[in-house]
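Continuing the batch. This is chain 6 of the set; chains 1 through 5 are on the previous pages. Same settings as before, nothing changed between runs. Recording input and output for traceability.
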Amino acid sequence: MNKKQLKTFAKIGISVLLLYLVYTKIDVHQIVDLFKKSNPFIIALAIVFFVFSQLISSVRLNYIFHQNHFYLDHLSNLKLYFVGMFYNFFIPGGIGGDAYKVFILNKQFNWKVKDLTKSVFYDRLSGLLAIFCLLLFIGAYIISPGINMFLIGLVVSVIFFFVTKLLLKRFFKSIEAIYTKSFIYSLIIQLLQIATIICIIIAFKLDVVSFLNYCFTFLVSSVSSVVSFAGFGAREYVFLKASTFLSIKQTISASIGLSFNIITAIISLIGLLFLNTKLNLAQNQT
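Output for chain 6:
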């Protein structure tokens, strides 16, 4: 077993363990009942927000590709993006979605693997940095609600933005040109996904005084999801542990994280459509 396979199986193991810890503490029948009583129209709206987040995510990736002189056609990039999502969710132990993108682009266009890998890695990193920025901003306000902490959170987030930009310039030559726009894309993506979570909460008809605690918990779960396979287990576990913080029952809290993962899995199935046909990608100069 090579290092890559070991890492994949470790993630699957973590997901299984976390899912076990979650579902031994909650009532599955209550989860089913919660879904039955949920508002289907609001759930549909949650899916729409999530789809838009993935469309923007694919735009961000292609923007980074173009800035690094990999002129992939926008439609081709979108197909490749969804195939990557499918690989990440439904091919445990196989080639990862990011690795697949690098492989197919190198195979079809003979683009350098090292440079492609850097582009794909930076795409992921940009998203992670946006999450940390939002955590700082929202976290400051949660600690002490008010205009002063709002401004402090805003200042800290801006400082975080510029400090990370300076640090990343040492590793990415093109960072100066792409950092700001890719970071803005990432913020929009995270805000759309937060909107997805808010829709799920509304669909479950929960009595919520403030949505900020849920937004903060979701962002923490997004960071922690990197240690599990496709986020399963980690997201539910974070929401379960945050149930006291959210002032709701453990079953309901875990259901919110589970719902987001289910939506992600459903949308990832779009990639299966493009796997059934030969993935012929095209280039452009725009």
